[in-house]
Amino acid sequence: MRGLNLVGVLLLGPASLAAQGTVVTAVNSITPQDIIRRIGVIAHDSMRGRDTPSPGLDMTAEWIAREFEAMGLAAGGDAGSFIQRYPLRRTRFAVAASRIEVSGGRTLHFATDAARLRGRATGPNGVTGRTVVLRGTPARSDAFSGLNVRGAVVIAVTSPDSISRWLRPILAQQPAAVIFLTERSDRSWRSVTQGQLGTTLEKGWGGVQAQRGGPPIIEVRDAALAAALAANGFDVTAARSGTAPLGPGAGAGAVPLPGLALTIHLAFETVEELSVPNVVAVLEGSDPTLKHEYIVFSAHMDHVGIRRAIDGDSIYNGADDDASGTIAVVEAAEAFAILNPRPRRSLIFLLVSGEEKGLWGSEYFSEKPTVPIERIVANLNADMVGRNWRDTIVVIGKEHSDLGTTLNRVNQQHPELNMTAIDDIWPNQRFYFRSDHYNFARKGVPILFFFNGTHADYHRPSDEVDKIDGEKASRIVKLMFYLGLDIANADQRPVWNPDSYRQIVQGAGR
Ligand SMILES: [Zn+2]
Description:
There is one protein chain. By secondary structure, the protein is of the alpha/beta class. It folds into 2 domains: 2-86 and 275-506, Zn peptidases (Aminopeptidase); 95-266, Glucose Oxidase, domain 1 (3-Layer(bba) Sandwich). The protein is built from 15 helices and 21 strands. The strands form 4 sheets. Strands 1, 2, 9, 13, 14, 17, 18, 19, 20 and 21 form a 10-stranded mixed sheet that branches. A 6-stranded mixed sheet has the order 5-10-8-7-6-11. A hairpin with a 4-residue loop joins strand 3 and strand 4 (107-109). Helix 3 (32-42) packs across helix 9 (319-338) and helix 9 crosses helix 14. Bound molecules: zinc ion. Zinc ion binds at residues 321, 356, 459.
């Protein structure tokens, strides 16, 4: 090995001397000091909590890109850069362009007659279904469970302060839309209609998110629909006074109104288009064939930004969530970049954004990968690896592919790490589906997810670098390095457990 390095020195000059080495040299480059220093950079108050989008997020991405460049890694992003940008947009409910058509010719207008509370399912012909009126005062949350309102436009006669209590049991019945009929003062109504005017940040690719937006949930003033309901034999005033006969259910009733049809047209407008970064770096493999296959190391560099102050601090630094995972990837990249010879397969070091918004960056990368997704043989994801137990790391997904067996073997080969990789101890929390690795899994890539669990500082301004255990994190990164090296040098790529493949990949509609 030394001889090889000397050749390298002669050819490449003295700067490369330190940057070439054996597995031991590479692993020794992963140090607690480096980890704490680097987490300190991106979890610093100056990064303002790395919200998606924000200048701090862009600064973080650019800093990581410079680190990768200095390590001699290849750029894997857009147009020869380390950055892959993906589009977002801010949209707003288009009040004037939206309406509810009522059979018989009347049209309800938003702001004056109706207010959109939530939901954005729409479509060229609007949202409609058979009309069912609910009334009564449900005493228990399951009061509606016996009512068949699936696919219906449900009108619920209620009071403004009952809406939140009614909503969940009604939505559980999967209606096409829910209209809450209420009485309010003009002043109270104005504040409800103001609530329609906020903007929503959403993904800017993959078409309108109509299907994911859920059924329209709309509040309508009594006066706007009372006449149409009366014409179909339903007296709103009587329903409110409780004098009308009740239908099925305990204290709640459902009345079908076959003669009344409502069609809801919701429109949305884009008020801003923007883009945010992922960072992508590549270390090319040394095997002429296997280098066309890739292992992705990933973590999310974004956090939740500036929010409500707690103890005078409003900057949510996200040192553990997920500066720790981000720096784990950077440290692993640095160790692999030192390694000579390089691993047989290629490695991708991916830092995504938008995780806290809904796994956006990893979704974009998995849908528009910079290498063919079939050639990504594994994803090792790290989210929160700097806190809690000193001797244990939970690794989620071990049972779904032979990566679990590989990890157990590699773990046993390195008792000096004093780090035991254990199985998912919170299966009920479904963490397998809750961080960026899931976007790889659903595309057919076997994954392992390194995760230390949450803590009292989770999603609070007190998730700060001074609480990170850099020494422990360094041993986790070393384990991930050894695991990645094993996968990269193996003759065969990892394989799914067939049952898991059916459930997770085919179930997601690969
Ligand atoms: Zn988080």
